[in-house]
Amino acid sequence: MVRIINYKERETEDGEVFLVLELQGGLEMIKSQVTKNFYATARKTTVPATFDEETCKALIGQEMPGKIEKVECDPYEFTIKDTGEVIELDYRYQYNPEEDTPVPQQRVERSESTIDDVVKFQNLEKSFSPNGVH
User: Which of 7, 23, 108, 115 lies 20 to 30 Å from 121, alpha-carbon distance?
Assistant: First the structure.
């Protein structure tokens, strides 16, 4: 499941303004490559919306089925807000509405019947008249 946590205003290259919904996935524990300590995080992404601002506000907190996946892309520069450091990334996060749901395992029981039992049963069925008279 993902949750709508915010909305933002964006602008196209042509100057057209539109809104996007900000989505957040579930809690993930990630091990730092530098300190080797774990930290809690959640994946986030945005999706364009055709809603007005009032509707976007009302949708905050709404949960939807799906997940946020990490997908490869062409390398791009990203500035870390807190430090101002510019890094190069080759992935982005994308919303996938299809959640992997485990298929429930059903216990299959082995039949004690043999092929001879099946043939015998079929022969019994043929021995009865469809009109009830032998």
Answer: 108
Tell me the torsion sign for CA atoms 43, 1, 56, 46: positive
Report pTM.
0.66
Contacts of 4 (CB under 8 A, 6+ apart): 21, 22, 23, 59, 60, 61, 62, 63, 64
Identify the band that residue 23 occupies on the pLDDT scale cut at 50, 70 and 90. Answer: very high
- Distance CA(55)–CA(30), nearest Å, equals 34
The mean pLDDT value for 23-41 works out to: 91
For 30-52, b/e burial (b = at least 16 CB within 10 A) is eeeeeeeeeeeeebebbeebeee
Name the pLDDT band for 103 (thresholds 50, 70, 90).
very low
